[in-house]
Each structure stands twice: as structure tokens, then as C-alpha cells.
Amino acid sequence: MRALAISFCVALGLLLVWYGQQPRVSLKVESPEPLTVTISAAGINGILLVEFSSVKRKEEMWVIGVSKKMLSKVKYGEIPEGCKQLFPPEGKNPRKPEADEEVRVRVLFQFDGGVPPVPCTGDRKIVFKAPT
Q: Domain 23-129, what fold?
């Protein structure tokens, strides 16, 4: 019985450690003009990618690669320092969202999860309507 209680306590401890390592990432549209998204994050090693896409057209509008850097704010069409534009091709500006167009913002991030910790990826998305 005592071995069962110890096993239960060990399992519970591992579960709490694993749960405590879960990333917490939230996105919020700070300003519709210029389109600015804020990123609040804890428990991650960095952001890998930020993607803006059209829900209706099912197409990418603007994608930047981040290389595990931490970003707290992204202004649509402005490439943050240390990041690289992946779409549209470098040198081209992303198209502006149309009035009332639903835009999805997706942030892909890397974190350490599990016991022992192993590299994992996750993402968070928000959808909002572009201003008229």
C-alpha cells in the first residue's frame, strides 16, 4: 500500500511539473490602423513564425520568420529587427486587408514540454474583422 501511495505522489508531482511547463501565449489586436497585434507569452523559448491570412480567400497575406526571438508586438507589413519576410517575396509589400475582411493571425512558438523536457512547438490564433 505504501509503494502505491509513493507511486501516486511521484506521478502527481510529475504531472504538476509537466503542467507548470505548459506555454501561455495570448494574442490581441492592439490597433486596427495601423494593424498591430500584441503577443503576451510565458513558458516559451521563442517565436518561430507570425502569419496573417485571409479566412475567406484561404490565402496567406504576410508571413515573417522569427528564429526563436521573443516579440511583444507586430505591426502588419513592418518587419521586426532580426526577422525575415517569407511571404510575399522580399521587397514586395503585403496586400492590405479589405474592409470587413476576416483576418487570421497565427503565431508558431517553441517550448520545452514533458519530463524530461523535449523541444515542442505550439501555436495560437485569433481571427478578427479588418476595419471598414
A: Immunoglobulin-like (2.60.40)
